[in-house]
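Q: Sequence in, structure out?
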Amino acid sequence: MSAGADSPAAPPQAIDPIALARDLIRCRSITPTDDGALDVVQQHLETLGFAVTRMPFSDVDNLYARLGTKAPNFCFAGHTDVVPPGKVEDWDVDPFCGEVHDGQLMGRGAADMKGAIAAFIAALSHFLAAPIANRGSISLLITGDEEGAGINGTKKVLQALAAQNERIDHCLVGEPSNPAALGDEIKNGRRGSFNGVITVNGQQGHVAYPERAQNPIPPLMAIINRLYARLLDDGVPGFQASNLEVTSVDVNNPAHNIIPASASARFNIRFNVAHQGAQLVQWVREEAAAEEQAHKCAITLDLNIMGEAFLTPPGEFTTLLQDAVEQVTKRRPKLTTGGGTSDARFIKDYAPVAEFGLVGASMHKVNEQIGVDDITALGRIYEHILQQYFVKFGTP
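A: Exactly. Output:
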């Protein structure tokens, strides 16, 4: 993997994070479409002296950029893809307008997470003029499918980088980690996620002649009850309790007088570090097998581990992040592990990782927006993180 020079030839010109965020929002980069978003990122990074490599996999384009050859390599990770806007007529503005109204930057991706990408690149334009900028390397891993299947983005980029002996020493993901105000929380771990579909195959028949049919609903209900009967845990240090939620039960039967041929249920388990995905898969298989035997029916399972639980223990790295946030916001963020999953679930296999970005209150909603002052402040936080990181971990 080629890298840019250890420092730019001349101090870079400061980048306006609001203007950059607006340019990114105007790209209709609904997963997996890029629509020029990575081109915008690449242009700015090359101006700053980064060596940029595009790393497409299947229909997803990704970007890895690096400046410097020394260790340590501090990586900023994020995504330019966004979820669909929903009904455009429900928005007060065009979802891809990137307009500022009453101090709020409007548009899909403003909070999640084009604003954070813009803030980091703007922070780089200030930091790279500092004397400590050549004490290591800085890289960016920007993907195009974080909001999608997560197959052809960060996961494959990391595998390809590892095959080239590219090392990342610490990583910060710019996901919107704050529930209500900038400085609320840093995510230093995430619960794992496990999706499952249980299908019981019976035999259709008339309700008046149940002996001629096999109703799949009772065994399905029995399996669901078995799963809910287990208390997974009461929580462990750093994590809330694991939970299982059935999200759908379907028989596709509009009639009152027909026993359906099959019944299925979808569920998700969010689990902490007390569990491993494979162990939970085995548990579900055993419970299903017991009911299959008891009801003499055929049961099929579709079980997928979306990500394992992980924790970056509190220490020098997380303290550095907290200090930088507090320096700008005057509020010390909590270390938390709640919420959904992110690409940090892949990064944790390669480097210590944490997440800090903007306020996520409006992400994935109609009229997604973020305060322009928050974007500017986040840029200052990222600049402080870079300064403190290379003072503490950098090569003199």
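The mean pLDDT is 95.
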